[in-house]
UniProtKB/TrEMBL annotation:
Keyword Iron carried by entry: yes
Keywords: 2Fe-2S, Dioxygenase, Iron, Iron-sulfur, Metal-binding, Oxidoreductase
InterPro entries cross-referenced by the UniProt entry: ARHD_Rieske_2Fe_2S (IPR015881), Cholesterol_7-desaturase (IPR050584), Rieske_2Fe-2S (IPR017941), Rieske_2Fe-2S_sf (IPR036922), VanA_C_cat (IPR044043)
Name of the featured protein: Aromatic ring-hydroxylating dioxygenase subunit alpha
Provenance organism: Siminovitchia acidinfaciens
Record bears the keyword Iron: yes
Length: 324
């Protein structure tokens, strides 16, 4: 498992809820292979390793709420204890060591989250999913050959919108970023509303300013809300990233709208995929791969305040993975 105590003790996204049906699946998280499965009690995450002969439990099946190893059919209950060994003569006790390593696992916001330290901390709030006011669309997986902090920082980067996403999320004529603050309040870290001039933010063909508020939720989970002041509508995108191993990350998100977009979920996802495909070559080729947390490294502008706040946040928390 990749060393990073802060991340091991956090809820990290493993996959989408819809990825875990009746068959167990293998998910690599922080270099650790996990078998994730669903039974009548919910979702569960084990180390993907059978103590008998090292088979991958994710190749097995779920039977009577147990995860059954594909090799010799040992059966593991959802707390990891082995409850049946078919090769043992009747009446022989199951060895105490016959256990699978189980991690904390929960399902929330359309995703499966795993805590590798076995803790159950509170998960970040995402009020857009609490009521019925917002239409929510699950986005991802999107594999990226980059470390999570570079991907997250790109999402928090205001200055690139009118360059990388010129014609989509910004205009070449409006690259200047007005002054704004980052607020620290009640444990929240969020920016003021930042005016961004967009060619067609609401699909009417009319260019205008919309207002972005960025917020840092967790080391690898952030969000922004875009507000249309004329129509008084909100769109939020939450981005969360799974560190797979040293090279690979997988991005997921939730796109939330409190208005009728006139688009199908597939069209919403396709648009987000296109935006992300514009960011990907940038992020995959940034050097150093590790996000520099020393603010003397690289050259920040005032408009980079959200990124700076993110770097300071990671530094204060002591996040190591993907940072330098
Ligand atoms: Fe799992 Fe033998 S390797 S039961
Ligand atoms: Co971008």
């Amino acid at each position: 498992m990749l060393e990073d105590k802060v991340l091991q003790e956090d809820w990290l996204v493993a996959c989408r809820s819809e990825d875990v049906k009746e068959k167990p699946i293998q998910v690599v998280l922080m270099g650790e292979r996990l078998a994730i499965f669903r039974n009548s009690k919910g979702v569960h995450a084990f180390k993907d390793l059978c103590i008998h002969r090292g088979a991958a439990l994710s190749l097995g099946e779920v039977k009577n709420d147990c995860l059954v190893c594909p090799y010799h059919a040992w059966e593991y209950g959802d707390n990891g204890d082995c409850v049946k060994i078919p090769q043992l003569p009747e009446g022989k006790p199951i060895p105490k060591k016959a256990k699978a390593t189980s991690y904390s696992c929960m399902e929330k916001y359309g995703f499966i989250w795993v805590n590798l330290a076995g803790n159950q901390p509170d998960i970040f709030p995402y009020p857009e999913m609490d009521g019925t006011e917002f239409h929510n669309v699950i986005w991802g997986p999107q594999e990226v050959q980059a470390k999570p902090p570079r991907i997250i920082e790109n999402f928090l980067d205001v200055g690139h919108l009118a360059v990388v996403h010129e014609g989509y999320l910004g205009a070449e004529t409006h690259r200047e970023i007005e002054n704004y603050k980052v607020n620290y309040e009640d444990g929240r870290i969020y920016s003021d509303e930042i005016a961004i001039f967009q060619p067609d933010p609401d699909g009417s063909g009319q260019a205008k300013y919309v207002y972005y508020t960025y917020e840092i939720l967790r080391p690898f989970t952030v969000r922004f809300t875009k507000r249309d002041r004329e129509k008084d509508t909100l769109m939020t995108i939450m981005l969360t990233v799974r560190p797979v191993d040293e090279e690979t990350s997988i991005a997921y998100g939730i796109l939330s709208f409190n208005y009728e977009t006139g688009l199908s979920d597939e069209e919403i996802i396709a648009f987000q995929d296109e935006i992300f495909s514009q960011d990907k070559p940038i992020v995959q080729n940034q050097k150093p791969e590790e996000l520099p947390l020393d603010l003397q490294v690289e050259l920040s502008l005032v408009s980079d305040r959200v990124s700076i706040a993110y770097r300071q946040y990671l530094k204060e928390l002591g996040v190591v993975l993907g940072t330098a």
